[in-house]
Amino acid sequence: MSKAKLSQDENLSLKVSHQLLPEDYQRIDIYFSLPVEMGINASTLAEEEYFYSNIKNHSAYYADKLHLPLVRSRFISQNKGEQSDYRLNLNLYSYQVKKALDADIKQTLKLKSAEEFYPAAIELAEHIASLSKQLRRYTPPDKKFNSFFKNADNYLSWHIEQSFLKLLTGGPKSSEYTAEREHILCFCRNENQYRVDKKYNSQVTLDDANRITNKMRLLQRLIEFGVVFHRKPRYLNVNLKRFVRGVVTAVIMAFVMLLVLNARTHYTEVTLALVAFLGIIYGLRETFKEDFTNLIWRKIQKGRPKWQNVFTHSFTKKRILSQLLWLEYINKKDLPQSVDALFQKRRQQNKQAAHLLHFRCDNKVIAKEFLPGYDEIQQQTFFNLTPFVRFLRKGAGRLYSLDGQKISSQGVERRYQINLILRHVCQHEESLQRFKITLNRSEIVNIEPMKETSTRMKV
Q1: Are the C-beta atoms of 28 and 15 separated by less than 8 Å?
Q2: Is residue 384 within 8 Å of 414, Cβ to Cβ?
Q3: How large is the angle between the packed helices 209-223 and 83-108, nearest 10 degrees?
Q4: Dihedral over Cα of 73, 75, 78, 83: its sign
């Protein structure tokens, strides 16, 4: 069973990723335990508001053999293939090279000693250079293919340069490895000069950091076409919600009309008392109608999926994956027994009053097979925690200490801890893991995974 993984994405965002096979079904549940002192509840942060603004889904072809782009063996030749075939294979190759580079850069930055860092960086530069040559060896002479090639080649060259400059900036500094550092810098200069020689970007664009960055973001989206699936969201229960609103309105109106008719039997003439009585009736109707409708709707909607995402292939328009999504505040009694037991394993001082927010995603792969060379697709869900820190205080004063006769102080920040349980159900096997997420107003300070448990579910 492929495990779902939770990791930090940006300063205040999380990423949950897992792989799916053809005709596969998997379920992801995430339970947020939000301390009451954070001020997050159904009144301050509505489920729909958070879902639309801060939860994103991403689905694409996936291969764990990042160092061997799978499309290389079937990369079309210069004189064969349709335009769509060439573009698809080109995008698959380019996307795979980018994923390989990003993964290797991330791993190399974890090397803190110069003795390990620079040899690994040199090896990575040589490997990426060979992949770039593999791409540029098949420069298409046909104009209908040439624009696709230029876009991909331009973006990859720029991304390679930026990645290695970032690598040298974040890596350890050592005077003993000046030659290795200069070798990588020379590699970056060559990529930069290559784009200049090809006249891929105008001087006006190069002189403006915002313009060149935004252009490359556009080119990145172009090479993702056909690899990253197109998502079509849909809000479920629209007609049911209309029906509930109509029934509630009809019941209230019937009750109001009954009161009005009874009032007319008691008041044979239009008097001030009748006018006041009718005004009170209609005022109460307008006051409680919306609240009553929302109460009934929340009772009916509880436990029902709220949204559906359908992912389709950009070229063929065939449906690849379907998702059903839930997001709602729940009570402690609604927790599954296994999840509640895992929450109870917290230390006593951590068992503070909290609101529970539950996210659920059911993934059903419709496709019976993927493109040749790809056995899995990767599903990623991103959670932005910025709304969670909206009401947090910036600091908690100063900490004083005594050193002999000298009193010193230092500023301290206020931190909060969110307990999160990730539940992954695949092939009747349940995997549970708890995470302690420490954050302040500006960033996630730490994500601490606790011991993982797996159980076999009864069919």
Answers
A1: no
A2: no
A3: 120
A4: positive
Q: What is the pTM of this model?
A: 0.77
Distance of CA 381 to the CA centre of its chain: 4
Q: Which residues pair with 225 in a beta bridge?
A: 228
Contact predicate 141/128, CB 8 Å: no
CA-based nearest residue to 252, from 286, 206, 295: 286
Answer for the pair 192, 54: CB distance below 8 angstroms, yes or no: no
* Cα separation, 292 vs 294, whole angstroms: 5
- Of 61, 106, 37, 100, the residue nearest 321 (C-alpha): 61
Q: How far apart are CA 435 and CA 456, in angstroms?
A: 22
Range 323-350 average pLDDT: 81
- Sign of the dihedral through C-alpha 231, 212, 66, 131: positive
CA distance 238 to 242: 6
Report the chain's terminal Cα–Cα distance, integer Å. Answer: 17
Of 443, 318, 325, 367, give the one whose Cα is nearest residue 57: 325
User: In which element (H, E) is residue 281 found?
Assistant: helix 272-301
The two structure tokens encoding residue 264: 């007319």
User: Using one digit for the tens of pLDDT, what is the confidence trace for 232-249?
Assistant: 888 887 777 777 777 777
For residues 422 and 100, which has the higher predicted lDDT (pLDDT)?
422
> What distance in Å separates the CA atoms of residue 59 and residue 72, rounded to the nearest whole number?
22
Q: Over the Cα atoms of the chain, what is R_g? A: 29
**Quick one: 11 exposed, middle or buried, by C-beta within 10 A (0-12, 13-18, 19+)?**
exposed
The predicted model gives 27-31 an average pLDDT of: 92
Token output for 287: 């006051």
Least confident of 78-92, 284-298, 357-371: 78-92
Contact predicate 64/18, CB 8 Å:
no
For the beta carbon of residue 170, count every other beta carbon within 10 angstroms. Answer: 11
Q: What distance in Å separates the CA atoms of residue 437 and residue 207, rounded to the nearest whole number?
A: 41
| Amino acid, res. 445 | V
Tell which residue, 101, 168, 167, 92, has the closest CA to residue 135. 92
Question: How many whole angstroms separate alpha carbon 96 and alpha carbon 88?
Answer: 12
- Which residues, 6+ apart, have CB-to-CB distance to 304 below 8 Å? 236, 237, 326
Question: 3-class SS at 317?
Answer: coil
